[in-house]
Amino acid sequence: MILTLRSENVIVPGASVAEMVSAQGAMEVNNMPDWYVAKMRWHGVDVPLVSFEAAGGEAAKPVNQNTQIAMIYTASDDESRYPYIGLVVSGVPHVTQVSHNQIVVDPESLLDAHSHPMVAQKTRINGAAVNILDIDGIENMIKEAEAA
Questions:
Q1: CB atoms < 10 A from the CB of 13, how many?
Q2: What does the domain layout of the chain look like in residue ranges?
Q3: What does CATH list as the number for 2-147?
Q4: What phi and psi, each to the nearest 5 degrees, are found at residue 46?
Q5: What are 62-90's pLDDT values in tens digits?
Q6: What percent of the chain has pLDDT over 70?
């Protein structure tokens, strides 16, 4: 599934996205990094909402009831604490089938000394730039932010 963000697209396995929801009831969080934009109660769990753009150094877009969130499953052993991560998205997700032959490492990313903390790999799929989302990395970022 390709998730549309403000300036980039990320790809995740379709089975990783539990649901697309609006951020109704999102609660502001204090003393967290800019990319940790809010928390939201969903399916009986407080889900951290994160901004890909803010983690990359851009300004975080305010979260309101119209903000769309991709609820992403984590692979955490501590499922009671982090079963989901909410990723703020800007557009409608696209379900697509992609083969290994269509995915190539983005040659520009090999020259880039600064990598995005939420990106596992920058790629090109049929020539279009698409980032592979690092779900485990985001989960670790959240754990570190909450522990600080």
A1: 12
A2: 2-147
A3: 2.40.50.180
A4: -80, 115
A5: 899 899 999 999 987 665 578 999 999 99
A6: 93
